[in-house]
Amino acid sequence: MRVGSKDVADGPRYSQSVARSEIGAAERFSALPLNYSTAFGAEALREAIAARYEHISPDEVVAASGGDDTLPSLFMALLQPGDHVVVHSPIYQPLAGLAAWCGAEIDFWPAVEAAGWAPSLAELERLLRPNTRMIVTNFPHSPTGFVPERGVLEEVIALADGVGTILVGDEIYRGLPLEGRTEAPSLADLTARAVVVSSVSKTFGLPGLRVGWLATRGAATLDAVRGFRMYQNSYIGAPTEFLATLAVRHADRILGGHLSLAHANLATLGAFIERNADCFSWIPPLGGVVAFPRWLGAESTSALSDRLLRDHGLLLAPSAYFGGGERHVRFGFGTTSTTEGLELLEEALRAGADPGGSAPLPARRSRLFG
């Protein structure tokens, strides 16, 4: 089992169904020329992406080969040594690592567990400086699953406006609101100061396509990113671009199926936490398909992860991987193997608690979404 991996939600079943449902898609795909495609993303792809936003046009989208391509372009195009960057934490490591690589000074804006994983706006205000070049947010938040209300986003925007800083929104888990919540608008729709990044890898369940994008109404940001990408690979492979366009056009259908799975798995995860209340406590996530339970055992979660891997062949993502200390783990619950994975983890935890029960589990494999 892998807990906290990059494996994604039940994407192949839905994506294959979508491909079959669009008339003529297979024929168009077979006839696709393998020349250079359009720089920064084909018009059809950018139109499909822009349609997912309220106030973004196709010309305000830059598509690339996955979020792992988009993020370096954004940071390297906009940051200089000596800039100051505030990063929402715990973190997806590149959000801080890339800024540091560019020579920026980093301050972390921490999520507060006692506040339901909401970060403090007062703390954000305290961290801002005249040379703050970026505020980097991540909503829905990985690893906690926290999602702010629209009013909170508007207060963050006001703070960014006050110092004239760019607001970066990692929205890769957007599209799966939990607990009956209505999802707040994208930051890109709320302000021209924001630039958001996303991809088809996580909530769409299509990481093999390697297609991501950034969207912003900020003309200077777009010019800087496009100028930088001219020195890189400004093209996406035509076959993956074609398939990603199909997926984004049918996003409601794909995300609807994944949301049903996420709700079912969230209930399973809640029951697991309840049965193992001597091991974990948690704040249920509000969006996405990751959660960040607190480990109640004596050992650190890095030690726990090492022990589970060594003795049981299970891989658990400890909070240290996210700059989040040593008392939490990230659980993913977006795959059809979630129930099996939790059963294996529960068996391993009980074996570890039994002095005579340290024998490795039988070799089995499952995966939990990260």
Topology:
Layout: E1 2-3, H1 11-21, H2 25-30, H3 43-50, E2 61-64, H4 67-78, E3 84-89, H5 94-101, E4 105-112, E5 118-119, H6 121-127, E6 132-138, H7 150-163, E7 166-170, H8 187-190, E8 194-199, E9 212-216, H9 219-229, H10 238-249, H11 251-275, E10 280-281, E11 290-291, E12 294-295, H12 301-312, E13 315-318, E14 329-332, H13 338-353
Parallel strand pairs: 1-13, 3-4, 3-6, 6-7, 7-8
Antiparallel strand pairs: 2-9, 4-5, 8-9, 10-12, 11-14, 13-14
Helix pairs in contact: 1-11, 3-10, 4-5, 4-9, 11-13
What does this entry show, briefly?
This protein has 370 residues and is of the alpha/beta class.
Describe the 3D structure.
This protein is of the alpha/beta class and 370 residues long. The chain has 2 domains: 2-6 and 253-353, Aspartate Aminotransferase, domain 1 (Alpha-Beta Complex), CATH 3.90.1150; 23-250, Aspartate Aminotransferase, domain 2 (3-Layer(aba) Sandwich), CATH 3.40.640.10. It has helices at 11-21, 25-30, 43-50, 67-78, 94-101, 121-127, 150-163, 187-190, 219-229, 238-249, 251-275, 301-312, 338-353; strands spanning 2-3, 61-64, 84-89, 105-112, 118-119, 132-138, 166-170, 194-199, 212-216, 280-281, 290-291, 294-295, 315-318, 329-332. The strands form 3 sheets. It has an 8-stranded mixed beta sheet with strand order 2-9-8-7-6-3-4-5, sandwiched between helices. β6 (132-138), α7 (150-163) and β7 (166-170) form a beta-alpha-beta unit. α11 (251-275) runs parallel beside α13 (338-353).
